Amino acid sequence: MLDKLKIPERNYLNNGHGLASWLLTKDHKRIAIMYLISISVMFFLGGLFAVAIRLELATPAGDFVQADTYNKFFTAHGVIMVFFFLIPSIPAVLGNFLIPPMIGAKDLAFPRINLLSLYIYWIGGVFTLYAMLSGGVDTGWTFYTPYSATGSNSNVVPVALGIFIAGFSSILTGLNFIVTIHRMRAPGMTWFRLPLFVWAHYATSLVQVLGTPVIAITIVMLGVERGLGFGIFDPARGGDPVLFQHLFWFYSHPAVYIMILPALGVQSELISTFSRKTIFGYSFVAFSSLAIAVFGFIVWAHHMFVAGISTYAAMVFSFLSFSVAIPSAVKVFNWTATLYKGAISFETPMLYAYGFMGLFAIGGLTGLFLATLGMDIHLHDTYFVVAHFHYIMVGGAIMGYLGGLHFWWPKITGRMYSEFFSRIAAILVFVGFNLTFLPQFVVGYLGMPRRYHSYPDEMQVLNVMSSAGASVLGLGYALPVIYLLYSLKKGAVAGPNPWGASGLEWQTQSPPLTENFIEVPVVDREPYEYEHVVAKEKHLV
Q1: DSSP state string for 335-382
Q2: Domain span at residue 272?
Q3: Does the pTM of the predicted model rise above 0.90?
Q4: 242 inside domain
């Protein structure tokens, strides 16, 4: 069958030619492709700084770069990866591309605002990169005061301004998704027929719209204090540096869920498709996304247990931090129940899904260590925190992003990729990741502080292991670039639904039409109904 398939003559990719047709497009799918290219560039740049960090830490002595240069390296790595890759990755690429066809819409509610959000992202990115390359910033991605307000001589304000600009892109994207999901669902697409991917993005969008303005005004106050000498955060001028931490983490902890919630939505789609089963406890998984978004706003102070906050406040935030594990555990348990007695296959997206479950579980459980008041005193600002964060963000968000990209690549391009090389890449990413970050749990527990460019000799073995793992991880990230680009010309034609998935987006041609659907579809089935798919497959056999 596959050898008889052809790429549809009319699709969103060939509907207009030339650079202007892309730069002025209002098609959500083309905007998603431009986001894909943009965040890939940012991922590459952020990865280069990670390479420099691991090269420095391969030896105990700080002999690769000077201390202040090392500070600029890890700051650049954090700023680029968090604000310009992780936060926009799944929403801006997969969310932009998939939400309209998933709900039976022809586009997002505000196509022009969607294009504007891309331009704002570009402006913020260029501004930040210029500031990084023309001197950099040495405060860490958290910009803690009073050092960032008065002590640092680096480009604090320009980099902060770049992040400020990019924040508007996040707000506009979230607003667009909320209105689209509320107002543009196809007939019959009730709230409880929505794909869990859409539920996850709805929850994410609420966090983007409500949380991002807080960090925006915090950046403005930091700039005002630094430029005009106002005493807002600097204690020498009557300010309070702990106030900055409250404001920063009030956004930045929910930002963790901006990064991970979309990946949780991807995971639900992969688990259901490759086990050929309806998601166990659909409504619980849907509401758990909203619960995670809500809890994300009330646990910020667990980052501040050693910052001098009240003992009673610390106890409350410790309890709330433990509570956020409940909706996350609901998802993992329900995915496991979905897999039980399922017709499981092991295509590449499913390998990423399995990797995600393991790494996300470790990341979540180690987060409970840090939520424990006594443990946090010992582990705060050590490599244990670095490992925990990366198990959630890299092991969770990036595994989810790669799983989703491989899953929907045939829909995006109309082509299949090499299953052999993609499986190799998935295994390399999983192995390389654990080899990189598991040793950091140990070295952190032993007391190695983060953000130091030198360390005691006895910790070298674990750091060398971590640096070696990073090289394996880098190879795992590089391989998809090669075989995915190769597939654009040489890949087998995918057809409309190569995975036999049940979602509405798979009922259209691949690549889709500019308008997604010739006629507005009418939804008359519950989500994730695979009984008819399994029956059809058995009939074909």
Answers
A1: HHHHHTT------HHHHHHHHHHHHHHHHHHHHHHHHSHHHHHHHTTB
A2: 2-8+22-540
A3: yes
A4: yes
